[in-house]
Amino acid sequence: MGMTSNNVSVEEFTGNLTTTLTHQLKRLYNLGARKFALMAINPNGCSPMATARSPTREHCVQVLNRAVHLFNVRLETLVVSVRTQMPGSVLVFVNSYKVIRDIIRDPASKGFSNARSSCCEVATINEGGSGILCKRGGSICTNRSAHVFFDGLHPTEAVNLVIATKAYASNFKAEVYPMNLKQLSEI
């Protein structure tokens, strides 16, 4: 498949995103911000929207997750590299990708029973929806905290609580780097 002037590789796109983010962080720094928490992109390849569109119905669409992972690796690297350009600043990388992937790999151990389908009935493309958002007047699951995904893309409040708890208190560098948000708040 040849590249045209309108197409860029995933690597180029990721590079453009991190460059733009770096400029935005520097703008915030110049306005007085010194403490930053940078959240990873979630494993969107595991979302109900992605798996519903997959012809093989794979549990996670790996091509999407590889692209997200590439960005997240660059984001984690940015935490160290940008700090030198912003004296007195502290940046923390919160790896929500890993936290959600861990839940999806073993939902029961984390108190979840459904890691595949959305809690709400999602409006499909055939119904004029995007495959992401809940269908107006559609059904909603009775136990939201048992689901990993609320709609076709977004995690439930229960998952966000796990991410927030880990971001604040985890001492595991694969989840928060170089420190957790509690430590960041004490600087």
Automatic annotation (TrEMBL):
Molecular functions per Gene Ontology: hydrolase activity
Biological process according to GO: lipid catabolic process
Keyword check for Cell membrane: no
Transmembrane segments: none
Example of a GO cellular component annotation carried by this entry: extracellular region
Keyword set, alphabetical order: Hydrolase, Lipid degradation, Lipid metabolism, Secreted, Signal
Key word Hydrolase present: yes
Pfam families: Lipase_GDSL (PF00657)
InterPro entries per record: GDSL, GDSL_esterase/lipase, SGNH_hydro_sf
Domain of life assignment: Eukaryota
Cell location: Secreted
Family recorded in the similarity comment: Belongs to the 'GDSL' lipolytic enzyme family.
Protein's name according to its UniProt entry: GDSL esterase/lipase
